[in-house]
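1st attempt posting a full record on here, be nice pls
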Amino acid sequence: MDAPRKGSLRYEGKAKKVFETEDAEHLIVEFKDDATAFNAQKRGTIRGKGAINNAVSARLFGLLEEHGVATHFVERLSEREQLVRALDIIPIEVIVRNRAAGSFAKRYGVEEGRDLDPIVIEWCYKSDALGDPPLNDATAVALGLATPEELETLFELSAEINDTLGPYFEERGLELVDFKLEFGRSADGEVLLGDEISPDTCRLWDVESGERLDKDRFRRDLGGVEEAYQEVFRRVVEDAADAAGA
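the predicted structure (as tokens):
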């Protein structure tokens, strides 16, 4: 495949820019260093974040593809760019929770770190203006966000993704506490995993120390934000590359 040419800007979000290409079925995603939290009420910059999230996401999407999960990812083009399949995004954020943390712990008044058995898979309406409110199945269907069959697919895929990523992170000394997923429909109607998987979208705690190695360091002013992202990059991308070359 010839290298795709970046066309006009289709969309700019909080963490990424999306560009058209000469092929209507493919887009170029450019990862930014911009950081936001609390529905963009808090803003900042994490130096090198764009390159790290691009590399981590590319590695994890590749891993999921190897395990049979269809994604929008095609290839990593440069330090900050990747080629993806164009999707009609389903406006539902899927949150998979293995432990109580963040808003979940606050909402139910439980201690952060509490094991959740069974795991919790939640829907939220993808809307910054409304604060991403939670949804149940009936609401999602009544609002026309997804069909019952699509919700079942989202649930099954999210559980499968968790089953794949959890052990992978654990082998690298990281615990996957919770994470956010987004899905979309391809041109032929297939539901594919989209967006990214990175320290921006996952809570990752060091298995030994419990140290937070994700965007919570930015959200909560814990310091060491760039170092945390670099550590995830080292474990997920560099160590994987070293193992492949061994």
